[in-house]
Amino acid sequence: MKYLKIIFLHFEHVFENRLRSFIWFLIPLMNNLLLIVFWKGSVIEGKNFQWTMSSITSYYFIMTIVGSMLSSHIEEDVSEYDIQEGDLVRYLTRPFSYYLAKFIEELPYRLLQGSYGIILFVLFIVFFHPVIALNTNLTQLPFLLIILAFGFAISFTLKMILGLTTFWFKENGGLFELYTILNIVLSGGIVPLDLAPPILRNISYFLPFSYTGYFPIIAIQGKLDTIEILKVISIQSFWFAGLLILSRLIWNRGIKIFTAVGQ
Amino acid sequence: MKRYLKIYQRLIKMNFAIIVAYRMGFINSIISTIGWGVFQIIWIYMLTYKTKSVFGWSRAELIILAVCYVVIIAIFHLLFSRNFERLARIIDRGQLDALLLKPVDSQFLISVWIIRYANFFRIAMGIGFLAFLINNLHITISALNVVGFLVLIIFGLVLLYSLWFIFSTFLIWFPQLTNLVDFLYTINGMSRYPTEMIKTLPFYLLPVLIPFTITIVTPTKALLGRILAGDVVGLILITFTLFYFSRVFWKFALRYYTSASS
Amino acid sequence: MTPVISVKNLTKSFRVYKKEPGFIGSIKSLINRKYYDKKAVDDISFEIEEGELVGFIGPNGAGKTTTLKCLSGLIFPTSGQVSILGFTPFDRKKDFLKQISLVMGQKNQLWWDLPPMETFLLNKEIYEVPDKAFKKIIDELVTLMGVEDIVNIQVRKLSLGQRMKCELIAQLIHHPKILFLDEPTIGLDVIMQQRLRDFIREYNRRFKATIILTSHYMEDVKDLCKKVIVIDNGKILYHGELNNITKKYSANKYLTVVFNKPVEKERLMHLGQIKSYEPTAVTLSVKRSNSNIIASKLLSDFPVEDLNIEEPDIQEIIRKLFLSAKHEIS
Q1: How many domains does chain A fold into?
Q2: Please, which of A174, B125, B132, C19 could form a disulfide with B28 given CB 3.0 to 4.6 Å?
Q3: Spatial CA neighbour of A249 closest among A241, A237, A260
Q4: pLDDT tens track for C76-90
């Protein structure tokens, strides 16, 4: 019950800054809209191109919603406010883990962003009636929710780990930027990964980023059969477990330094 | 006026002294500027990997456009962008007062306060890659093309600056929109696309988007020899108009500025 | 003598938006935004001569900071006239700004990663201070503040006290004739507060600068200001000499007595109002005119070890002033 109250309180705070959070949403939306228009004017070379105008439009659209819902930005919060400015101390006296506390704080932001996306999506369908390719296989629905949940969990944990490196490196602005760049490229943020040059494609399948973007999106589009979806979920769970353990390890090591040295 | 030049000289020295005093910060800056520069290039390569042409621009031309974008935006970052981020922060925290009390034009002081030297690396990388591309793709560039390119870059930068300043002035009424700068970066990013593509967007967006895109596209066209006289005249006219308007608008906004009382 | 600062019927009102707390409040404010106009400064007028050191006293929200901001040209008055050194502050002419300095709140002029001297040099260029004058004033200020050793050390490495001193110097490079100080001693320790007061006094004396000082701490005002302006709810309650407040608004004096043998309360009650009592110490409040008579009576009739005649605390007088003003309004 207390968790619900906390979420509600955060939601109110986020709502106050609605204009600001709207802009946060507008940014990826604009980027993706432009990509759609870009594809419209593209003359394709070569055969075996498995995307149509409608499927690629829906790819970017779903990416806007999924992207804003699944990508968290807590690394700055963790790094600057909690570790560097010492706000972390607040959390140490609370009865639940830091990870969980930050997780709960994140949820209202994600929900708000997601709701913008869904509203927009509905508006777009109503006003423009594009043929948006979506998954019509209802039996896959529960799996889709699992994929999305894992996608968020992986993204959150990666960002948490990134933020926690501040225990050792005070200056990690460059590191954060590099992560953002890698993430965009390797999660299918520029083009669907199967359209990427082969080297990049293979690397991205190997790393967790694609499981926070590309795979959830094409699953929603219905491009994966049930076996493939289960494969994705198992890889996601493997990554999530591994990253969670890594995050715990880093936390345990780092908190010793933090409490020993002080701010 | 000589005085403003002296102030700018001082700021150049001080910003340089910070690099020496704060080497880690400088290295981080270099990492991120080069990272983004490389990203832009990967971006265009990935997007056009399977395409022959887009809106009448060949793959080669699109790549050149993207690299010109890298160079020009890097110059913008060198001279101006940090100052806009700082302006958003200052207005939000009510610290504009200290600035307004100085006997110097406030727009000038805001705009030139921070210089991000790390971007020299990105500019160099961009120019190097540009030269490499031109050589590799066997595109013929005459001296006139290069001169036109450089001259139009200057106009493009002044126009871009004016646009950013006009948008940032709105922060005086909406100080909580500190992510306005991120939004402006996104609109900047639209200039990686050919103007023909931008023109297919809804008409009500064009008056805002076109000025942004011509800051990059017009100099690029000059470099590639695809430019028309109308493009040049248009760029110059819009630049002067919007620069003048940015000053008028800013002065207007200051009249309404009420700093938060203690 | 024409006054250096002249304020006539100055009024400044702000629009304040109301919002009910809670989530429902947020939704309500979306639909129907309620606001009211708050008069931060309400029709005030005063004049200040050159070289005066005037204290601005008032509770939080009284309008002190707003007045200072109007005087320095940061805020456009809703109505009224302000004239400083012949300039209208809000015109923000270069020659006006070169002669004033407003020191308030979060001082963040100094560049964090560089020594203070670098910021001083920047301000030198901004205020067009000639080289000779710059050197002279830097030497004077630095010596006065005692920071010779640290002007060339990075600001990030300095202590808070050192930083504040350098921040202040940065604001004075251009030798302002008029200084507005908004809560200058807030957050400082007792020693720093005294040092700062000494500095302000010296600056006023040496350079004949006109200084307006706002402060919560009566110590600042008592120590530095001959004249005060008392302001509450945007209105001026008193403008004049500090000493006169006591005479004007306080009819009483306090007699603090220490006895070397216990004395019963009843024996003292007819002498005056007992403010505090212990068997061997008592504080009496007596009428101003009677204070000497009562004092000599105490000395003759009681086993007095120590006797003190004091003015009531100015803070208390002013508090009474505010309360009576509230009373008048309501």
Answers
A1: 1
A2: A174
A3: A241
A4: 888 899 999 999 998
- pLDDT level of residue B260 (50, 70, 90 thresholds): very low
Residue A263 resides in a domain: no
* Structural domain contains residue A172: yes
Q: What is the ipTM of this complex?
A: 0.88
Most confident of C15-24, C51-60, C111-120, C313-322: C111-120
* Higher per-residue pLDDT: C17 or C200: C200
Give percent of chain A with pLDDT exceeding 90. 27
pLDDT at B166 over 50: yes
What pLDDT does A69 receive? 80
CB contact under 8 A, B103 and C14: no
Taking residues C12-37, what's their average pLDDT?
71
Residues of B in contact with C66 (CB under 8 A): 261
* Cβ within 8 Å, pair B177-A19: yes
Measure the CA–CA gap between B204 and C150, rounded to whole angstroms.
Answer: 58
Contact B200/A17, CB-based, under 8 Å? no
**A248 domain-assigned:** yes
pLDDT recorded at residue A235: 94
Centre a 10 Å sphere on the Cβ of residue B231 and count the other Cβ atoms it contains: 18
- C partners (3+ CB pairs within 8 A) are A, B
Contact C147, C155 (CB under 8 A): no
What one-letter code names the amino acid at B193? Y
Rounded Cα distance, A36 and A33, in Å: 5
Give the B:C interface size as CB pairs under 8 Å: 75
Q: How far apart are CA C229 and CA C55, in angstroms?
A: 6
The two structure tokens encoding residue C300: 């003759």
Cβ neighbours of residue C59 under 8 Å, at least 6 residues apart?
C232, C322
| pLDDT, average across residues A92-110 | 82
Nearest CB to B46: which of A31, A175, A190? A190
C-alpha distances out from residue A210 to A45, A196, A225, B13, B67, Å = 25, 12, 18, 45, 27
Residue closest to C201 by CA, chosen among C227, C224, C229: C224
Domain of A36? 2-257
Question: Which runs of E-coded beta strand occur in A45-183?
Answer: none
Burial B123-144 (b: 16+ CB within 10 A, else e): bebbeebbeeebeeeeeeeeee
**DSSP state letters, C93-147:** -HHHHTTEEEEESS---S-TTS-HHHHHHHHHHHTT--HHHHHHHHHHHHHHHT-
C69:B259 CB<8 A: yes
Q: What stretches of B94-224 adopt beta strand conformation (E)?
A: none
Mean pLDDT of chain B: 91
How confident is the model at residue C128, as a pLDDT? 94
CA–CA gap between residue A28 and residue C48 (Å, rounded) = 58
Closest residue to B21, CB basis, from C65, C101, C113: C113
pLDDT in tens, C164-198: 889 989 999 999 999 999 888 877 778 888 888 88
Residues of B in contact with C73 (CB under 8 A): 100-101
In this structure, is residue A249 part of a structural domain? Answer: yes
Q: Could you give the CA distance from residue B118 to residue B34 in angstroms, rounded to a whole number? A: 9
- What is the number of residues in chain C? 330
For B35, the closest of A44, A46, A178 (CB atoms) is A178
Q: By the CB < 8 Å criterion, does A196 face chain B? A: yes
What pLDDT score does B262 carry?
32
The answer on pLDDT for C330 being more than 60 is no
C300's torsion region: left (phi>0), alpha (psi -120 to 50) or beta? alpha
